[in-house]
Amino acid sequence: MALLEAVVPKRNEAIAPVRRALPLRLSSWRPLIIALIFPLAVLLTWELGVRHGLIGGRLMPPPSRIFETLRQLAVSGELGAHIGVTLQRVLIGFTGGAVAGTVIGALTGSSQAISRILDPTLQALRAIPSIAWVPLFILWFGIFEASKIALIAVGVFFPVYLGVHGAILAVDRRIVEVGRVFRLSRLQLVGRILLPSILPNYVLALRSGLGLGWMFVVAAEFMGASEGLGYLLVDGQQLGKPDQIIAAIIVFAVIGKLTDSILLIATAPLLVWQDVHQGKR
Amino acid sequence: MLAIQDLTKIYPNGTHALHAFSLDIQNGEVIAVIGGSGCGKSTLLRLLSGLETPNTGSIALRGRILKEPDALVNIVFQEPRLFPWLTVAQNVGFGLKHLPADERSDIISQVLARLGLGGFEDRWPKELSGGQAQRVSLARAIVTKPSVLLLDEPFSALDAMTREDLQSHLIDLWQDLGSTLVLVTHDIEEAVFMADRVIVMRPFPGRIFQDVRIDLPRPRNRMNSGFTELRRELSDLLALSLIPEKSNGPILHRLG
């Protein structure tokens, strides 16, 4: 009976307060297991190929050596220090770029006059490959933290700006009219209607901004850093340590994914009201 | 008194929606506006709510000229237009931000209970049925205690039973609030059930065709012979209002 109740959804479940059970059934792991078959097979072939001398391991270090490098870096505390430096750069740059993108996007989205003045210039600036700013930023801000953070902020700014600006323009006129009936000032309209109604798009814009932040931190750390994960890449190249390069790449993947997940989890409570076709989040 | 003087609205695309519309509405009166499509009845409400500005003419509430949305005028649209990111209680309290929180939640709970939505405070709009959502929308408008409540076909998307239920609820509320109601509808029965006066409009451009007084005592019975008589009379008037005037040449007029 209990089994039956667990399987057959109760009729009033939609009305009852949403209870989130996390079923740890085997079937939910199956896609993950299937997805892992191919990369694990590649890694295994690689490892065995190097061990048996079929593949030269000097430029293509086997997984075991990469993990050994990772372990040594971690044990010596170096890895933690590099991660800390890079993470700090990304977070400061991301915060700056996201705040600027949000504010300016809200301004141009809610006022046609401001949009006419600012948006064409911003779109033109957006067309510049952001890496092109590097020499200028070094001249302006020096070769230390400021120029790196500025580059990351620029990278984060544009997707956030574009997301906020575009989403506000697409807000339903009928909802905005309700705000007018309640005689909201422009600032109240932005704060009470426009920004809340674009939250789902906003989270998306922040995520793509964060993704670009991780992209640009590498570029920033290429332009002369003595610490950070990007420095590990350059150092690995200059000293001929491919295992260190790959180790740093793996750390980038893990931390990039991790920060994205944190952003997603942190913003989830803001989106519970959404009426989406994939109801369960 | 709500004094509407000579209101004309021509939209930028050239649509002549309303032409020289004048009407005096007494405080607490219920006015129903009916007419075929293109008769400017929705435009009338958009002008009264301040969402559109007229090309000529004026609207005065108790001697004060209205030029933009006013604290004493609120509107319920055809769709609920709830804010999906706010709970039911937050939606209803949208216009009460100036009140202290406990006073606000008292008012909200009272109104929701009154509309048969007691206990729905913490629901999200996505969890409501169409009728419930429209009731929340009505609650959001009436908690501000408007002198004039505009209703733009508020029940037209609902099924017949829900509609009659909401009409009775609205009349109950009106008897307490004493607000002036201006109800745009295409439902003649709704007009006869609710209104003190029914304004029949004529389209292209929108003008008043007939002003019919409904003297039936309240609460009204839809089966009453007086009720059905008025229904028939209004339905005849509505049919007449849709016949193009001969003097202008029927085809040209329709195209114009």
UniProtKB/TrEMBL annotation, chain A:
The UniProt similarity line reads: Belongs to the binding-protein-dependent transport system permease family.
Q: How does the record say this protein sits in the membrane? A: Multi-pass membrane protein
Reading the lineage from the top rank, the first entry is: Bacteria
Q: Does the keyword Cell membrane apply?
A: yes
- Looking at the UniProt entry, the stretches that span the membrane are 32-50, 124-143, 149-169, 189-206, 212-234, 246-272
Q: Which SUPFAM superfamilies match?
A: MetI-like
Show which residues constitute the signal peptide. Answer: none
Question: Which controlled-vocabulary keywords does the entry list?
Answer: Cell membrane, Membrane, Transmembrane, Transmembrane helix, Transport
Q: Name one Pfam family in it.
A: BPD_transp_1
Q: State whether keyword Cell membrane applies.
A: yes
Note the InterPro entries from the entry. MetI-like, MetI-like_sf
Gene3D superfamilies per record:
MetI-like
Localization, per the record, is: Cell membrane
Per its UniProt record, what PANTHER family does this chain match? Answer: ABC TRANSPORTER PERMEASE PROTEIN (PTHR30151:SF39), ALKANE SULFONATE ABC TRANSPORTER-RELATED, MEMBRANE SUBUNIT (PTHR30151)
Question: Under what name is this protein listed?
Answer: ABC transporter permease
Chain ranges of the ABC transmembrane type-1 domain: 83-263
From TrEMBL, chain B:
Q: Give the ABC transporter domain ranges.
A: 2-228
Keyword Nucleotide-binding (UniProt): yes
- GO MF, one example: ATP binding
Q: One matching Pfam family, short form?
A: ABC_tran
Q: Which PROSITE patterns match?
A: ABC_TRANSPORTER_1 (PS00211), ABC_TRANSPORTER_2 (PS50893)
Q: Gene3D superfamilies recorded for this chain?
A: P-loop containing nucleotide triphosphate hydrolases (3.40.50.300)
Entry annotated with the keyword ATP-binding: yes
Which UniProt keyword terms apply here?
ATP-binding, Nucleotide-binding, Transport
Similarity field: Belongs to the ABC transporter superfamily.
Q: What is this protein called?
A: ABC transporter ATP-binding protein
